Amino acid sequence: MTGPRTSADRLGRLLNLVPYLLARPGILIAEAAADLGVTAKQLREDLELLWVCGLPGYGPGDLIDMAFDGDRVTISHDAGIDKPLRLNQDEALALVVALRMLAETPGIGTRDAIERALAKIESAAGDLADAPVTVKLPANQKKLEAVRAAVDSGHALRLTYYTAARDETTERVVDPMRMLMVGGFAYLEAWCRRAEGTRMFRVDRIDAFTELPEPSVPPVGAVPHDVSDGVFRPGPELPLVTLRVGRGSRWITEYYPVEQVQRDGAEWLVTMRVTDLGWAQRLLAGLGRDVTVLGPPELIDRIHAQATAALEQYAAPHALDAGEPAGR
């Protein structure tokens, strides 16, 4: 199989893709894919992602744009990517602070690369890098250290865990396998006896845990997850949600994994996989009129029922004002 397998590799390819295409207007997609060491299908997916990349504002002239002529592609607007990057003082300091924080985060396996990048930015920033800024780890650091110590003890754990996708708290016994950091969050990976499968538990969502006297013995079939592309790996078995998104809510295409984004006038048509329709309902209900749900029908019915119930609650005080008994 050709092509990168990690999100870091893809980011590097995307950063190189625009100047590569700018220097080769009208290049065949197959030829570009061969040069970049990816399949034509992967390159088309990268080009679709570039359509939602650009400068803050996300309006006309802010995003990268392309023109297709059969199997050929040309960058028609580069959104200023060809301009040299110049950091102001606030941006340079923000990078220094962020890298210092990252270097202190437990579980980071690329500390050498972080320290090299930090040294380069501190050198370029000069005296600004010595600004009196205190870097502190998140408030759940004590919990992280306690969970890590429990995992190192080799014992099973009883967890009280909040599942955001279903908005519920459950108790379960798990056999810990490892601790890891993904996307800036600490996770406990363990065999869940309740689900009879390997699960990832975000440490900040563990409300409480108890170390049990019995040893942690994950079964032979407990295989660690591949987290090279993140924790959430959408598959065809998950519900497919289709949305019509206004300008004010386009940020969801950056914050959540999406399968496809298409322009439709001033709006975008977005498709995304979700683990739970209840989670999607809560997310979309909070976005209001800026997002229209086009599918699946079950999600449309859920949101319609929720909106109807809310309207009925607003109508209830008026009924009391009209003289109806309060207990009716």
From TrEMBL:
<dbReference type="InterPro" id="IPR026881">
    <property type="entry name" value="WYL_dom"/>
</dbReference>
<dbReference type="InterPro" id="IPR051534">
    <property type="entry name" value="CBASS_pafABC_assoc_protein"/>
</dbReference>
<dbReference type="InterPro" id="IPR043839">
    <property type="entry name" value="PafC_HTH"/>
</dbReference>
<dbReference type="Pfam" id="PF19187">
    <property type="entry name" value="HTH_PafC"/>
</dbReference>
<dbReference type="Pfam" id="PF13280">
    <property type="entry name" value="WYL"/>
</dbReference>
<feature type="domain" description="PafC HTH">
    <location>
        <begin position="9"/>
        <end position="122"/>
    </location>
</feature>
<feature type="domain" description="WCX">
    <location>
        <begin position="240"/>
        <end position="311"/>
    </location>
</feature>
<feature type="domain" description="WYL">
    <location>
        <begin position="143"/>
        <end position="209"/>
    </location>
</feature>
<dbReference type="Pfam" id="PF25583">
    <property type="entry name" value="WCX"/>
</dbReference>
<dbReference type="InterPro" id="IPR028349">
    <property type="entry name" value="PafC-like"/>
</dbReference>
<protein>
    <recommendedName>
        <fullName>Proteasome accessory factor C</fullName>
    </recommendedName>
</protein>
<dbReference type="InterPro" id="IPR057727">
    <property type="entry name" value="WCX_dom"/>
</dbReference>
